[in-house]
Every structure is written in structure tokens, then in C-alpha cells.
Amino acid sequence: MRFFLPSSLIWGAVLLFGSSAYAQVAAPAGPKRDNPVRCTGNPGAFAPMFDPVAGAPYAAVREISTVKILADGTRISPKPTVERYFRDSQGRDRTERPLCGDLAEDSDAILVSIRDPVAGYAYHLDQQRRIAYRYALRVTRPGDRPAADSDLPVRVIPESEFRNESLGSQSIEGIFTLGTRSTRTIPAGAEDNDRPITVVTEYWRSPDLGVSILAKVSDPRDGEHTTRLTDISRAEPGIALFRPTADYTIQDATGRVTITYTRP
Fold first, then answer.
1. CATH code for the domain of 257
2. Contact 130, 261 (CB under 8 A)
3. What is the Cα–Cα distance from 244 to 132, expressed in whole angstroms?
4. What is the tally of structural domains in the chain?
5. Beta strands 211-219 and 197-206: pairing type?
6. Taking the model in full, what pTM does it have?
7. CA distances (Å), 177 to each of 142, 207, 250, in order?
């Protein structure tokens, strides 16, 4: 018997990239440059870093997009989230994502998150106030993952049907990838549904980098989700990207912090 989390929860976690969360305050109406702007993010503690990939450095732009199709055929396509991602040959990584969705061109309106499995620390950087919130980073290997707590209540649902198929290989962004399509059929009644639900996931993964260059999920409950890497560089990123610079004040943290960006 298998137990599954709803895919909406899984993809929620994926799209937030770990445990970072955001709350945005929209800019007042009018020209962007003529009005004050204030927006806030509340990133939290980092999840354990499982099996860091060493020996495969790269940098890329990561674009995450979602399309929802309503019952009448209406398509809702929010503006994609665009992030920059860096990983060095020791497994350190850095993610830069917009703190204010409409201010991606402002360098201080970017939330920088760093994970350093070598030093055992992770950071959220408040670039405007020059504060580096430092967290202890737990690094684990696949065999170190804890077993499920048998004392916790578990919802038992009917077993889903899975079908996997190979899609062969192709070059994406100049990177050799292998494709896999997984089809999951959730039986009627598993989630109070009156008929089966089919979820299709397609991955194009680079064996060299150990990461998916293109991933697509089609789920009638949540819409179509696409994550794509572009502008991929295999060069070694500089070590300075994975450390707060000397002008940052280090503050140890264990939970959520508030990072506020203000533009007069």
C-alpha cells in the first residue's frame, strides 16, 4: 500500500524552492518610478539539503510558469517567475529570486538564498539593510532520511496506478538530456473525486548535472506547471557568490525573518 500527498502540496513546495515564502505589497497606482514602493518577504528556515551534487558546477536562469484552464476553456497565465541559480563544484548553491514581483530590474529587490554544505550554513540576504540571516544547515544523504513517525495519523487512500515510459534523449539548451513521462491515475473516491484523475509528469534530466533541464506537470486540479533552465553555463562560479560579503552583519536565525525592500 502506498501513501501520497496531494500534488498541490508537492508543487507548492517545489515552486517555493524549499522553505522560502513571500508576501508582497503592491506599488501604488501610477508610474513605477514616481511612487514609493514597499514590499516584504518572510523566508524561513532551510529544509535539510539532501545529497549535494559535487563536481558538476553550473549557472542558469530558471523560469517557472503556470497555466490554469477553466471549465469553459478560459486560460489563466500569470507572469512567469524568473530566478537565477548557481552551483559550484563543492555543491554550494545560490538562488536569486524577485522579492518584489514587478521590480526585478532593481538589484536590491532580489532575495538571495545561499546553501553551503561545506561550512554547514545557509543564508538569506537582506541586500538593502546588509544583513545576512544565518541558519545551521543540515546535510543528509539518502540513507540518512528519517522514517515516517508511526504515531502520526495517516490518511489511507486507494492505491494509484502508475505508468512510466522513456522518451529517449534530446539536447536542450546544448545539454544532453534523457526524458521520462510518468502517468499517475488517481482512482475515483481517493480525493472525493467522482471519476479518475490523471496527472502527467514529464522530465528531461541531465545525467551530467544531475538536474532537470525541463519539467512539465499537467494536473487537472492545479493546471499546467513548467520549469525550464535557460542560459546554462558550465563554468565554475566564483566562491564569492556563496558567502556574504564583508559589509554584511551576520545574524543567527532559526525561523522566519522579515526582509523589507523600500524604494522612495
1. 2.50.20.10
2. no
3. 7
4. 1
5. antiparallel
6. 0.77
7. 23, 7, 40
